[in-house]
Amino acid sequence: MRVRTRVTAAVAGLGALVALSGCGKADMSKQASPYANAAGAKTVTLSVQSWVGAQADVAVAEYLLKEELGYRVDKVQIDEIPAWDALSQGRVDAIMEDWGHPDQEQRYIKDKKTIVPGGGIGVTGHIGWYVPTYFAKKHPDVTDWKNLNKYAKDFRTPESGGKGQLMDGSPSYVTNDKALVENLDLDYKVVFAGSEAAQITQIEQFAKQQKPFLTYWYKPQWLFKKVPMTEVKLPAYKEGCDADPAKIKCAYPHTPLQKFLNADFAKNGGKAAEFLKRFKWSEADQNEVSLMIADQKMSPEDAAKKWIDANEAKWRGWVPK
Amino acid sequence: MSDTATVTPAADAATDAVFAVRNLWKVFGPKAETVPGNAELTGLDPVELRERTGCTAAVRDVSFEVKKGEVFVVMGLSGSGKSTLVRCLTRLIEPTSGSVEIDGEDVLAMDKNRLRELRRHRASMVFQHFGLLPHRTVLDNVAYGLEIQGVARAERREKAMKVIEKVGLEGLEQRRPGQLSGGQQQRVGLARALAADPEVLLFDEPFSALDPLIRRDMQEEVVRLHREEGRTMVFITHDLSEALKLGDRIALMRDGRVVQLGTPEEIVGSPADEYVRDFVRDVPREQVMTCRSAMRPVDSDADEDTKGPAIAPDATVSEAIEAVARSGFPARVMDGARCLGVVDHEQLLGVVAGVTPKGAAGRGGPAAKAGPSIRKEVTGEVAS
Amino acid sequence: MATATASTPVRDTGIGALLRRRAVVKLLLLAVVAAVAVPILNAKWASGAWPEALTVDVSEPLTKASDWIIDNRDSHWLFTYFFGHISNAIVLSVRGVYLVLLAAGWAGVTVAAGAIAWRVAGLKLAALATAAFAACGLLGMWVPTMQTLALMVVAVLASVVLGMLLGLAAGLNDRIFRMMRPVLDTMQVLPAFAYLLPVVLVFGIGVPAAVLATVVYSAPPMARLTALGLRGADGGVMEAVASLGATARQRLLSARLPLARKELLLGLNQTIMMALSMAVIASVIGAGGLGDRVYQALSTVDVGQALAAGIPIVLLAVVLDRVTGAAGERLGAHAEDNSPLRGWRGWSIAAAVTLACALAARFADRLEWPTSWVVQIAEPVNTAKDWMVDHLYTGVPVVGGTADWAAHFTTYVLDPIRDGLQGLPWWSVLLIVAALAWVIGTWQTALTAVLAMAAIGVLDVWNASLDTLSQVLAGVAVTVVLGFAIGIAASRSKRLEALLRPVLDVFQTMPQFVYLIPVVALFGVGRAPAVAAAVVYALPAVIRITTQGLRQVSPAAMESAQSLGATSWQQLRQVQLPLARPALMLALNQGVVLVLAVVVIGGLVGGGGLGYDVLAGLARGDLATGLVGGIAIVCLGLMLDRVTQPTERRAKKGA
């Protein structure tokens, strides 16, 4: 008899569970963050990438969404590629600055149709290899990749061992450096600092000691204002030369940075979606905000406010009436 | 209840036997169940048995009955199987073979519910290490047995309070076991067993973990309880003086067998074998033996039936010694007005010295040297 | 002289000699095996790093699996009818708790924390709890704290339920216990990082994955301690309960479980601490909350922000640990509670006060922590850090700068060890592992260790693993030297121990993640700071075990040594250390396990190795790389644990 009560209890419990969870399909790809909309306001969730430029984009967008449109903004830090997945699932409503991920675009925009492009952010990005200008001035020929091997010994560090160090930032960033070093036959070792910030710290330290270094870096970036750097010329980029990641032998392209929106959000997101689609500024504007955040250590919110207060003409048009 | 008892030759005794144990075996080890039925194995001594089969026989072929209202003591050294035996009575340990009856009902045939009823209402146990629940107060510990019976809270608390008073723990009912002394804890254990108002109380070496003085108090407590309520008790102990003090009858165990079963006097006065004799060697025999067993027939020629102090047959020898010493004459053992016999210096000294003077009424000498078959006869005779 | 003669026979007949003799036999056997096997292996595959021919490429099937999951997540029944519901339930419950916390407002939550601590653990801890929550608000971390708390509440509840169920099964059934015990033991030594990827594979990045990883990580101690507690129930009590005619359920509910309540509370304590630790690390897979703030701050090397988020984590950890710990101690103590507030009265007062505060805050429209009350510590901290960078990093006269130390440590310690390991022929690494594990443990532990190491090779992460291993070895060496030294000193000086105790208490409760903050400030990024964080993390446990081990050396042995006129150095060397050997071994084992746990997280601050693989896998959405890294971490953890595992092991994890 006890067995029967137990079985009954188990069935009842299972039934309750099923009933609670909605009696059927549960699409986990359409679940928002549990923290979203907590205060009952309309909420937009933005993905914050780890580099400062993207933080500047988000800070300004956040401020305007809050102050001008009355939204609540949640920010989620996710790396670039997982952010696509999150965007597709609706855990994130928008990515403000994407540096080009063809695979993901194919999968989510063309195949699954869960993400739509949101237009350009107005900034063109370019990745390259850089040496500090103080070093380039002393050794002008270092700016050609063909001469890099000559200077390998100058770029040696404990982490790179006997080879020269090519410093990369976060593993998640778009990078072909390992292949490039191999294919261009360079006597270098790619060392990942782990994150952009770590990389910046190291660059600043090198700069302080006026030491030579070779680093993966990109434009637009505020750090150029603090540590002037000169790009090393790699073999010129041609359309399609980066098709096979293993055989790349050319420089990085110049990429107009893109915004992407979750498809549902783009359709039903109202003014917020409209605003994010219209958001477009310039490299100089972005750098201004970035510098305030990263160098003057202002909070992103304060930095955004400062820029917004000074540049109403620029953003007024983004805000839908 | 006796009418449901199976009819056996001893059926007339079933009415006053609470527990009837017959040919009980408990064997631990692989294929334990094959041992009792195998004549070849049953004859082995423990060491050989373990070598042959890897089994340990904790209880071997034990039979006895516990009569209503008596204190039945099972005594033996550690490892003699006595604790296993008492656990077999309520199947806390499942016997390997044999039979156990309570009020004529076969315990081994009981289903789970019936067995639970037995444990809840008919036989409660008091343990050497108390077995109290440390997270409950004294009151809740005592009421625990009632709680698992499903007795309502108010009622069980009331009952528990009564028992607590009975065992002398008033005022401590809100304490937890950890805050009590050993003796107090055992009183809680006793109270818990009493709370269910069982037919039989089973004691498993209840006082051996206590200090000597407290142990004596507790023994007296048990004596008092028994006197007041007349409840049947089965008492396990390794302490001979405790056994002699409490027991109406004593079963003495060794290596799983009952080597002798009898009244304290029989055990002390007529040890069944060398082992028992050794065991009881240091007992102050004059305090156990009664005049009835020490006396010799009256020698009417010497006027013994008229002279000398009168003494009851159940008086201990030491009492007789005092009387004899005071009067200078042999004491008359008087059952009412009838003179059963006399005890004089010779008998009394014989008892103290542990030798059997000629003409004494006690059984002794030859049985002690007898083999197992005779020993069985002895136990059987006493049991029936 | 007297001590020498007295101690020599002891040593020769003691365990040491026996072990040494047995060890020699084992080593000889192993040498024979090696003599036969090595030439064959060498002839077939080259020596040096793990041979290519013996690797299995798992990344392709894993990538396919990962792609399949992403493509089918919204359509396949497995997801829509099973994982989807789990994910849903988690999101709903976290959200529910979070909304309740927000609705209670900062006043309600702070007062509730104080009230609960008051009822459970007394006034002192109530003050601590209230202050801690207030501090979270003051630091401007109220909302992240509530997010972390909401996640924790759900994860801890789930862990406790799951752990208790598993523990019940294992506690009541020998077979299940025997099967589960090694699994649980092993799970306890694995770094938290290894748990992240499998859940991400199925659930994607986000709160559900974070909660599940937390549950998987923190349920084992509950299960383990529940099982141990249930099995350890006093046989006498259980027999007494049975003798009273209790049913199986009554025996369990009224006796066995209450008897195990100390273990259950200890389990709860450990589960909470591990859940917090994991909830913070899980920010890497989208847990949000405080961990996310630390993670974000670390990725911008913003030490001030990291600290502002790190302090609430530490406070939360200390409060949770102390309150649950105090609850356990209260159970053990038999003090009679005669205060008029005991039982339901105290609780209802606590509830009433909480409710009143929550309502007051609500009507005053003060649910959110007032912005004006926020103290910005980020800026001063960053200023201080900048000053440190300017003045302490490099070129400090005589001692050099912290960055210089880090560079030297990397060049002169980490690099040689790494290059040495990577230069060793692969079979010799296996042999060394086998020899160490066998000498210290049994042939089973040796076999597990060798298999784990071989698995690393098969998975083709040999070099990355050896990189991580080199950091672990360096970290362990530093930890053990420092730990033993401080431990010995503390065991000989009551004063030092009294000074150390509160420090160790706090350090041992801190989640691993937090240790990364100060080391980044001090040493910048790279392998050296990762190792430094690991050392700081593992040190308290090692010191504690060493001190306890030395203290527990039988006073009789010490007394007899003293009476023979041994100097205190002789006492230490000849009596205490040999007798405390099991404790020292245990300290080593714990040190290894804890160092590994942090070294892999060190991937976040440029530690490289396997931790980097996992992070890179997460960051690039390349789960195959990440999973392989995770599996390798598991293997490495297994190997290191088995190699240092003496016969008996410890019930409680160091942190």
TrEMBL record, chain A:
Residues forming the ABC-type glycine betaine transport system substrate-binding domain are: 42-309
Signal peptide residue numbers = none
List the Pfam families: OpuAC
Residues annotated as coiled-coil are none
- Gene3D superfamilies (UniProt xref): Glycine betaine-binding periplasmic protein, domain 2 (3.40.190.100), Periplasmic binding protein-like II (3.40.190.10)
Record's GO cellular component terms: ATP-binding cassette (ABC) transporter complex
Please name the GO terms that the record assigns under molecular function.
transmembrane transporter activity
Record-given protein name: Glycine/betaine ABC transporter substrate-binding protein
Q: What species was this sequence derived from?
A: Streptomyces alboflavus
